[in-house]
Amino acid sequence: MYKVGVIGCGWVGLAHGSGYKLLQDCEIVGSADPVKELSQHFAAKYGGRIYKSMNDLIDKEKPDIISVCTPPSSHYPVIKTALSRGIKNIVCEKPLAHNTADARKIVRAIKESSAKLMTAFCHRFIFPVMKMRWMIDSGELGDIVFFRNEFSSHFKGVEDRWFSKKEISGGGSMMDTSVHSIDLFRFLCGEVKNVSARITQKMPGISVEDSCCVLVQSEKGAMGIIEASWNLGVGSAFLEVCGTKGRVQYEYWGEFRVRHEGDKEWKTIPVERDINRRFEDELHHFIRVLKGEEELRCSGDDGLRANQIIQAAYESVKQQKWVEV
Ligand SMILES: NC(=O)c1ccc[n+]([C@@H]2O[C@H](COP(=O)([O-])OP(=O)(O)OC[C@H]3O[C@@H](n4cnc5c(N)ncnc54)[C@H](O)[C@@H]3O)[C@@H](O)[C@H]2O)c1
Description:
Blueprint: E1 2-7, H1 11-21, E2 26-32, H2 36-46, E3 49-51, H3 54-61, E4 65-68, H4 75-84, E5 89-93, H5 100-112, E6 116-120, H6 127-138, E7 144-154, H7 166-169, H8 173-176, H9 178-189, E8 192-200, E9 211-218, E10 223-229, E11 231-243, E12 246-251, E13 256-260, E14 267-268, H10 278-290, H11 300-319, E15 323-324
Parallel strand pairs: 1-2, 1-4, 2-3, 4-5, 5-6, 7-10
Antiparallel strand pairs: 7-11, 8-9, 8-15, 9-10, 11-12, 12-13, 13-14
Helix pairs in contact: 1-10, 4-5, 5-11, 6-9, 9-11
Bound molecules: nicotinamide-adenine-dinucleotide (NAD).
Nicotinamide-adenine-dinucleotide binds next to helix 1.
């Protein structure tokens, strides 16, 4: 049985709690959040004792695993402290840090310890994404030419949340949302070679971008078109990969379909696993990694690389040109 502590009991802390609760090999022993009502709410749903501070949780419960579900600028201090108190297994939410310097420090600290770290890029655990990867790897879609991905919504109240405070988040929708897209691109199309980005900021009361468009090119020449917005009345979560022999599209929570060269019509692909189980599935994967049953699918280096590419995207906005990563 793995003893688990969850640090940060906001939206994603609850998602991790729900995931661990479904895993037979895990017991949630504690949660920590400076806002007592949030850890109380967490404990009522998923169990464990409540703590105001992570240090007390670690010292008293000695968890085998912690999930870092706090805002990005706290990830490095939290991980550094956890390692110094003997934690050996860490799941850290995306982005790995609010800037590349901290992401690099996290990766270095993990390498210097004997700890394991998974950057929690949950999209890698969604069935259609895994299926796309199998289709690409098998050659079914031919050479990949285009990757298109939009994650957009209307983020009500963002002006009052840490998401729009650059010193905590590291940026706006590009850092918060496109970091997932960059990781998806790398997972499906390979390493990013260069990037070009543009941003807009129209939502009142915030000083970071609410919308962005990012172009990326892979080392093998695949081109990615990534869009993110917090400012769309009608949002979308859409992913498409187009190759020389076919294209595959996934409308999140909607249709998953493929069309091969010569097909007159689209073919629907059954989604064999509920997308809402992505947190459970990523945590289950981490447990299998700890048991030596699977290779880690998203490492600290993957988190660092995504941070580096997002930083290059901000540099491109500044310089108004393509930036090598
Ligand atoms: N994978 C995903 O799809 C996904 C979705 C949402 C958020 N996230 C990421 O998860 C992280 C948290 O986001 P959220 O939406 O849950 O934010 P949130 O504001 O809902 O929750 C964060 C919580 O952390 C607590 N906290 C802050 N510092 C702390 C500390 N030192 N110790 C303990 N608790 C602390 C806050 O009080 C708050 O309750 C961010 O990195 C975010 O980017 C990932």
